[in-house]
Amino acid sequence: CTTAEQPIRDGLNAFISKDVVNPDITSLSPEEAIARVENQPLHSGLRNIAVKDNIATLGSRTTCGSGILREHRSPFEASVVRSLRIHGTSVSGKTNLDEFGMGSHSTHSFFGTVHNALPFENLSPGGSSGGSAVAVASGQCSVALGTDTGGSVRLPAAYTGLFGFKPSYGVISRWGVVPYANSMDTVGIIASNVIAIRKALFRVRQYDPKDPTSLSDRTWKRLDNRRKSAEKREATARAENGDEKRPITEEQNIDMFGVRIGVPLEYNIAELEPGIRQAWSDCLMSLQARGATIVPVSLPNTKHALSAYYILAPAEAASNLAKYDGVRYGNRDGLADGIDGVLYSRTRGNGFGDEVKRRILLGSYTLSSEAVDNYFLKAQKVRRLVQRDFDRIFAIPNPLRPAQQFDLGDIDESILMSNKLGPNQVDYIICPTAPTLPPTLDDLSKQTPVDNYMNDVFTVPASLAGIPAISIPFPIPETFCVEGKPTFAGMQIIGQYASDYELIKITEVLV
Ligand code: GLN
User: Fold this and answer.
1) Close Cβ partners of 168 (under 8 Å, ≥ 6 residues apart)
2) In terms of DSSP bridges, do strands 90-95 and 48-52 run parallel, antiparallel, or are they unpaired?
3) Which residues contact 247 (CB under 8 A, 6 or more apart)?
4) Where along the chain is composition biased (Basic and acidic residues) (predicted)?
C-alpha cells in the first residue's frame, strides 16, 4: 500500500490510491443475484470507475483527503460501490478531494492540490470532487463517482468541461459514504457524456435498507406514478389551452416543443462573468429555436441560500467530525492512555487541515446555546423557503411534500396538486453552474475563505432543496473568450424532486 508520505502522483494529483485490490464478489444476496441477471450485459464504459476517496472501498484506503484518516482502511464497502462491482465494474483508483468534501477547488487535501487537466496555466479543477473530474478529463477512466453536498460534483464538472450529475436526495445510497452534511450529502456521477451518466445511474439507483434516507422501490414507483399522472393532467390542461406539449421520444430528439424552461432572474448577478452570461443566453436561444418556451421565473430566497448553506453544512460537519479523537476514530497522536493530557488536541490539531478546523469552529458556534436561535434555526427556516421557491415554480408538484402530511395512498392526485404554491410555470430551470470561469491557483491563494464560499452561490440552492441537477459544458462565443481560460462554461439544469431520469433525458436531447 502507498503510504501517506508517498502519495502516487500522476502530475495532476487526481488520485490518492491507484493500488486498489478489487475483491472478488463471492456471495450475492438473492436481490443482488436477480439484479445481476436483469442488468446484463455490462455496459461498456463502466468496466473501470474512479471513486472519490470519501466513499468506502475494500482493497484500498479511504482517507477522505485527511491526515486524520491517512492510513484508514474501511472494513466494509459503500453500497454504491458494491452495486457497481456486482455487475463487473472494478474500482481503478481512489480520487483526491478537499478534506472531507469541504472546499470548492480541491486545494484543501492532505495529499496536495489537484491540477486541472486543461491546457491552461494552473487552473482550479473545482472541488471538492476535483480528483474525480480530473481522472475523467485526463482519460484515466470514463466515469467517476463523487459526492455533492453543495456543488462538489457540478462545480468540478463545470471547470473541467465534463458532465456532473447530482441526483435527488435519497436516490443513490449514502451507506459507506463518509458524511459531511448528512441532510444534503448525495453521491454524484461525473462523465464526459450524458449517456454514461444515465447508464451509471441505472446501475446504482436502487433501494438500500442500510441507508434510512434511501427511497424504497415502492416509494420511487409511487412518486414516479404521481409525477406521471400530474404530467398527464398538465398536458391535458395545456392542450385545452392550445399549448400542447409533445412527449420527447427517441425519434423526435431534436424537438423541444412545449418544454418550458425557467430562467431565474435572481441568478443574473452583477458578478456573473460576461462570457458565462453570453453562454447562458445562447443556450436559452438555442432551446427556444428548438421549440422550448423560455419563462422568466423568480426564486426570491436564492440570495439567502448561500448563507443558510454555510451555517447548516458546517453545523452538521462539526457534529460528524467529533468522533475523530484518536480514541474512537482517527490516527492517534499523543499517548494512548492520554496521560500527557494532549491526546485530543494533538490528534485533532495535527490531523485536521485549516479549512476543516474553520468549519468545526463555525459549526460549533452556530450550534451553541447563545447562537443557535439566530443562526442554525434561522438557516433551517431559510432552507424551507428555498424549497418552497422551487415548488412554487415547477409545473409538477413535489412528490415529497403533499398537501397533507399523511400517506396519500391511492387518494386522488388532485390533492397532491394542491401543494403547489403558485401557477404551473416550468419543467426545468437553466442557470450557470458558477458565476466565474475557473480561477488560477495563484488567484485562489489571494482569496479569503468567504470568496471561496461565494463560488457555490448557484449550486447550493438545489442542494438545500434536495432536487436533481446536472452541469453540462456549453461553448462561450469567441468574442467573449478570455485568454488563458476555457472556452466553455458550465450550465446547470435543475428539475423537480425525483425527476432524475427525465432530467437526464432532456439533457441528452439538449446536447
Ligand atoms: N464547496 C462546498 C463546501 O465546501 C460544497 C462541498 C460539497 O459539495 N461537498 O461546503
Assistant:
1) 186, 466, 467, 468, 497, 498, 499, 500
2) parallel
3) none
4) 218-246
For the Cβ of 438 lying below 6 angstroms from any atom of ligand 1, the answer is no
Q: Tell me, in angstroms, the distance from the centre of ligand 1 to residue 132's CA.
A: 14
pLDDT at position 414 is 54
Q: How far apart, in Å, are the Cα atoms of 473 and each of 126, 153, 211, 510?
A: 14, 13, 32, 11
Burial class (CB in 10 A: 0-12, 13-18, 19+), 55: buried
**CA 459 to ligand 1 centroid distance, Å:** 9
Which of these, 262, 187, 157, lies nearest to 472 by C-alpha position? 157
Q: How far is the CA of 153 from the centre of ligand 1 (A)?
A: 9
Q: Whose CA is nearest to atom 5 of ligand 1?
A: 150
180 lines ligand 1 (CB under 6 A): yes
**Which residues are designated catalytic?**
52, 128, 152
Q: What is the DSSP letter of 324?
A: B
Pocket probe for ligand 1: among 104, 165, 444, 457, the residue whose CB has the most ligand atoms within 8 Å is: 104
Is 335:172 a contact under the CB 8 Å cutoff? Answer: no
- Counting from 1 in the atom list of ligand 1, the atom nearest the Cα of 355 is 4
What is the ipTM, given to two decimal places?
A: 0.98
Is the beta carbon of 102 within 6 A of some atom in ligand 1?
A: yes
CA-based nearest residue to 101, from 33, 23, 174, 27:
174
CB atoms under 10 Å from CB of 222, counted, come to 18
| Average of per-residue pLDDT across 31-37 | 65
Q: What is the pLDDT of residue 8?
A: 41
d(CA 200, CA 112): 29
pLDDT band with cut points at 50, 70 and 90 for residue 407: very low
Residue 452 in contact with ligand 1 by CB distance below 6 A? no
The atom number, within ligand 1, closest to the CA of 104 reads: 1
**Rounded average pLDDT over 271-281:** 97
Which ranges of 187-325 would DSSP assign to H, the alpha helix? Answer: 194-204, 217-240, 274-289, 302-320
The set of residues, in sequence order, having a beta carbon less than 8 Å from that of 196 and lying 6+ positions away, is: 45, 46, 142, 143, 163, 189
Q: Dihedral of the CA atoms 187, 77, 334, 7 (nearest 10)? A: -70
In angstroms, what is the span from residue 103 Cα to ligand 1's centroid?
5
Q: What is the pLDDT of residues 8-26, one digit of tens each?
A: 445 899 999 997 888 777 6
Q: Quick check: CB of 312 below 6 Å from ligand 1?
A: no
Question: Which of 456, 459, 460, 492 to probe ligand 1 with, by most ligand atoms within 8 A of CB?
Answer: 456
Residues 6+ positions from 309 with CB-CB distance below 8 Å: 150, 184, 379, 456, 460, 463, 464
Span 462-509, pLDDT tens digits: 999 999 999 999 999 999 999 999 999 999 999 999 999 999 999 998
In this structure, what are the phi and psi dihedrals at residue 470, rounded to the nearest 5 degrees? -135, 140
